[in-house]
Amino acid sequence: MRAFGARDSEFEIRINQRSVIPETLSLLAREHGLTLPKEKQAELLRLMDKRDKLKPKVYAEEMRTLLGEKLSNVVLTHYTPATIRKLITETKAGNELLTLLEILERRGITNIIHDPYLVRGFDYYTGMIFEVFDTSKENNRSLFGGGRYDNLLELFNKDPIPTVGFGMGDVTLRDFLDTHNLLPEYSSATDLYIAVMNPSVFDFSAQLAQRLRRHDLTIAVDYSGKKIGDQIKTATKKNVPFLLVVGDDEQDTGIYKLKHLPTKKEYIVPESQIAEVLFQTLE
User: Which residue in 94, 77, 74 sits closest to 31, CA to CA?
Assistant: First the structure.
């Protein structure tokens, strides 16, 4: 995110520890003289993962169906950030999470918070989990997330290896960059686009491109056979700065019409001057 120019205030890293959730829920239930059944913990985590996607009334109803009236009331009423902050120090996983937060802060990562409601619904997570959120009100959403999974490879008959992974979407990242005016301006890596009039000059165009590449230029040749107008549209869409059209006349005369697409300025030049014009303009 920082590599794109984002400031720490523009995104927030929310973190939790997967095993902290059932441990603190069990402590919370015990404080109220109740027990959280082990066989319901996985289903409860999946329900909590849907908390922000469900209407509060529907979420509460599903919680009561799963846990019963008394235990669901305890979870709905007392599972709060303030309460969890007190309980977390009483659990092994909680202390591991607090240690991780301290390490990250020492390393200069200050836009990170513990979010007790962060679950991530995949059962294979075994440790730390995280999501990165855009802090802008215009795009306040999760951008990507992941976590630690120690035993996932066992599903594929491999030795378990502790691993941290994450997934992200190109659309969510683009929305973030667009929201914060960080979307980079696309610059083509191609210097010259050769549009070919007809198949009879394919070989000639390829040879011309090879000779021009010896000047350390990046050349693209269009062998699509499309109309010249369509080839020019392709070059423009790709933001290629220069266009050269090759047909029978160019093959016979060795004289070319070189066009600078951004300014529409045209140069009538022999092959020997093509590289010179490009370098003078691209500098």
Answer: 74
